[in-house]
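Researcher: Re-running this chain for the archive, since the previous output was lost when a drive failed. Same request as before.
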Amino acid sequence: MAKFWNWGKHQIAWQVCGESNAMEVAIVLIHGFGACKDHWRFNQKIIASIAPCYALDLVGFGESSQPDSQLLFEKKNSNNFNYCFDNWSQQIIDFCNEIVQKRVLLIGNSIGGVIALNASIKLSKQCLGVILIDCAQRTMDDKRLGEQPLLMRFLRPVIKTLVRQKLLSSSLFKNAAKPNFIEKILKIAYPSGKNVNEELINMLFQPTLRLGAPEAFRGFINLFDDHLAPDLMKHLKSPVYLIWGEKDPWEPIKEAQKWFKHFECIKSLDVIPNAGHCPHDEMPEKVNPIIKRIIQEAI
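Model: Regenerated structure tokens:
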């Protein structure tokens, strides 16, 4: 059953398992783009056997508020929101301080991983560590433009101009926010096909029916210059643990292997054979024991 917390003008949906657990450390789960707190449907109760486990919907997703987007060149007002990693990270920080009120270990999937890294830096000693599950590598960020083919570099200004337009972003959203399209994307994200079911499709589809969903989508697809995980890890003192789907179609395992070799803060890399971008949901029977092991080591 979802609970709600007022974060400024925004209403944030969250849920907790194991709240009565006397452990002085809590786990906070941060979902990826298009997902929600229930994307941890096979993990939260298992994790709660060790420590209280919280999951929340980021602004723009799930049952949380979906305010109008405010791009950097647009005027800020009291009702719009800049969908960016600093603001989402601040949401996590304030949630930890106001709701959780314990030292935390953050677990993030996809963009939730970047948010977890950024929040952990600002939480400092209050954060015991970060588990990244197929963390977003953000290959389309402006700072990685030099890695793109020449044509993409040439077209980038045109693409950025187009996706700023509400008419185009609304059209893109309308085409994507359909159960059959969501199912197609899930079958790419979950290469084994495991757990791609009606429950999951509906979980991701229902929030797209809400009035503000196109604005949240517009805000996200205009994130062309924001935090990159490697840049954040340069400044990180908390330990980082990687869990990765071997066949992730969007975040290549080779990049994760480079991170593991390069950054001292990364303590382990666990690869889930045949899994894709969301191994915690696709193959929870393999991921949950790893998460439990890491938590027990970290606390």
